Fold each of these.
Amino acid sequence: MPKPTMYNIFNSLVTAAKTTGVANIFLSNRPDVTKEMTEFVVIDLPTVQYRAVKGNDDFIVRTEGVFYIGMKAKSDNTPNIGKQTALVQKFLDLFPITDDRIVATEPTVLLKGSDKSGFQLTTITFHIRTKINSFNH
């Protein structure tokens, strides 16, 4: 039985995120912060999925994705700019993210500031298209 489209998209994005070496990867929401956590990424698909008519395109679903990248602030609660920038760059270097199921392109970076839990957040939003035969995987 084919996997659902959301499963394939998340699976592809998690596989890509793991190559950055980030220690904590979460889907859609981050759990409560632990003292041991120094960095994390939350992978989210917060937008509508648009289905193409089969035969009109090489892609069947178009949607948007977001990486919420968190880096622990310094002890005085100021941003750890060097580490944050290095981690964000590792994610930007992933693009375009391409595998048998998806193509993720056009990353846009937004610095979000403090999450009120001791982390500085940066978001990377991007376009996602699923390949026409990805439902067979």
Amino acid sequence: MTKALKTLIKLNKNKLDKILKDIEFQEAEKNRVTNKKLTIENEVRLEIDKYSNTEYSFMLQKYIEHSEKIIKSLNAQIERRNEIIHKLRSSLRDQYSELKKFEIALEKKLSLELEKEKRLETKKLDEFGINQYLNKK
């Protein structure tokens, strides 16, 4: 049974590692999209400052509208990433809880085996002592 528990612990640790890697990937993607959104917002501000009262201002409105659509799309992507991260973290908590159950079961099993060995050793030593006592008589 000990070997089975160790195998289950190892499998659960592998699942935890996979979930952690998935969370890390999603966080990185979220940061990438957020940085892209911030870059676009900064570019829009610069373009507004540069062309707002010039002969090119008629094109500026279309540029702003297009940029707002892109920003809206990026916000949706960020929100989706946040939802995925939330689900992964929930899964991580569940998997960690499962891992702890197996680790506790293994600890109990090992402590019971150790206690059993101590009792057996005590019994052997008692028998040895009794035999020596009887042999002296």
Amino acid sequence: MSLEFRAKLMQVVAIGFMLFSILWALAPYVSINLPARFILDLIDWPLGNLSAELSRDVKWLSSIGAGLLVALSIFLGGIVTPAILANDKRTIKVTKIAIVAWYIIDSAGSIASGVASNAVFNSIFFLSLIHISEPT
């Protein structure tokens, strides 16, 4: 896969994360949080809690998580994408370490919390990010 194509894929991932985080960030706003409730219900497969009101803790932690995901999307699009184009192996290596750390902590915590389906979603993103960021 060429550097240019890998960089474009990383940009697509960054945009996808940004859109996901914007919808997730709606969780605390009861009158407009249907997209966030759908995302949370989808990740906690199978579907079935879409109509449930979100707890204070879910709203609060969704705000934190969405904020961190926005930061990650900016990092991927603004730092990692140019690093891929420049074949900057050091930045790509640190990015891969960060991706592995996220994957382990998020997936282990999801499984321990009884939401193993999130670990499955994480695995898809993890494999995609690792493959895209693979240096040539």
Amino acid sequence: MNTHHTQTVAPTANHSEFVETMLHDDQFVHALWDAVIGDPMTGVQVVAPDGTILYGNDQIFRIFFGEQSRAADYVGRNAREWYSPDAFRERMTLLQDILEDGAARQFRGIYQGRQVVSTVYRVMAGKPPAAKTPALL
């Protein structure tokens, strides 16, 4: 069985302010870059608290939507477009928990017949992720 790893980061500010901040914050850019280049098979995405996809590399969308998927087709859209209402609400609740306590979480599940492990970190400018060893949910 193939295992794919994904990382999602949840910003802590209004997403339009966050995008402006991330473009001008060297520490955030370096942290994001490190996540992207740390493992070429890792999908990375930045999700606003409302579920809007602010950033994603092609790999994250290939993992969840198939080999022909590209980031350009999803960035700027809201995840509620492809999740059921219950699944979207569950994910947004988990993101809110991460925003509040700062602890990373790791999720494992089956998506389109493949095991997917996602690690979710809160990203704040100038601060490393709060937990190096995320809790597995």
